[in-house]
Amino acid sequence: MINAQHLASPLMRGLLDNYDTPDFFCELMNRNASVPPIINCVKERLSALSIEELKTRTASAEAQLYRMGITFTVYTDKEAIDRILPFDAIPRIITAEEWKHIERGVEQRIQAINLFLHDIYHEQHILKDGVVPSELVLTNPNYCQAMIGLSVPGGVYVHINGTDLIRDQQGRFLVLEDNARTPSGVSYVIENRHMMLRLMPDLASGLPIRSVENYGPRLHQVLCEVAPDGVADPQVVLLSPGIYNSAYFEHVFLSREMGIPLVEGKDLFVDNHRVFMRTVMGPRPVHSIYRRLNDDFLDPLVFNPNSLLGVPGLVEAYRQGNVTLANALGTGVADDKAVYAYMPRIIRYYLNEDPILESVETHICAEPEGLAYTLANLNKLVVKPVGESGGYGLLIGPQATRAELDEFSQKLQQNPKNYISQPTIGLSVTPTLCGNSVEARHVDLRPFAVTGRSVWVLPGGLSRVALRKGSLVVNSSQGGGSKDTWVMAS
């Protein structure tokens, strides 16, 4: 471990000497409160490196990532659709106290989301009490009729969740959005750690960094816990759309981490409302399915009749209680960007508690006052379509041209229900290698949680970094990269 003398030693000149700390909250350089000794230690070790050495190590990391096939797909790029997620070798540090706050907030939020989903598919108390508008839920494209009246094991609808967090100018963690359908990115959390320990052992040596190694076993345990009653040794599988899916690497990775078969729809069939997997030894019963398929493609008998990716009869087997789907059908209502605006009320309604993690102020354009405010302040706001992800289809008002503002104003007036707006938040920044210098770049954080008999939050998360100067969009599909997230144990 690190001794006090080492922590207190003066910073050496080096990597961070010319770092221009911006007016934003910098998580490494200008914390408002007293700086934890761990932060000073990391700063000292970074300062001992040269730009050339950091560039060499980063190039080595990205070459290894590519050789290992750790890529994602960008369908809009005709020249190179398979890319590695750019990796920045300067880690992001989260103190033990900060993580405790995040962990409690994520656990609270997931508990409320599961209670909300059970309610809207059963008694609908929250709708009848007028806390959330009925129309917003019942006409939502993600509201699943097949889930009405269906009770799921343990009341868990969202078994795997990714909560997107940002830090504002004061360093507060705020929830930007929920990902309660098929959240991706946890493979990068684990592989980034492997890469950092190989390439930067001198930086990590002796630090009390919490491990991220047990995500796979934890997830497998949860999927066994929520299997149908009476199954002593549940068979769990990961259902993937196949090799052309943008997150296929992650599907392969997680199936290996859990030690379970990776299957496609053609590998499964339903007989007498029970799901089986085709194997060389004959049919084998399947009890829990971690599905990385959207609802619409899961069962052509219930959803899209043209889907070749799903399993005919799967939904009825699910309704009969013979198989568990993780996440449950219809969970997309809970991560709808308009429903997000009501999450503070949802938490208070079900838990009788104030939210531990605050949400970003949100204006719902489907409501007259929300639309009027958005149109009047379009050049100051971020406007998002409620059903999109990956940073597509949004407007960042302060960075938009007059023509773009006018065009988006027309879109809002033509289809206000499709949009919400939020103030432009000055996202926190961290030092990031940019060519031949270290510069401040904006970051967000996606902690991953798995829920069975209890909620467990992986001690770390996907830190996405906006590599383009001045950009607030961190998504990989929009040119973002990632960092290793070091959560300290003490």
From TrEMBL:
What Gene3D superfamilies does the database record attribute to this sequence? 3.30.1490.270, 3.40.50.11290
Mind telling me which InterPro entries this protein's record contains?
A: ATP-dep_Glu-Cys_Ligase-2, CP_ATPgrasp_2, UCP005522
Domain Circularly permuted ATP-grasp type, first and last residues per copy: 91-466
Q: What is this protein called?
A: Circularly permuted ATP-grasp type 2 domain-containing protein
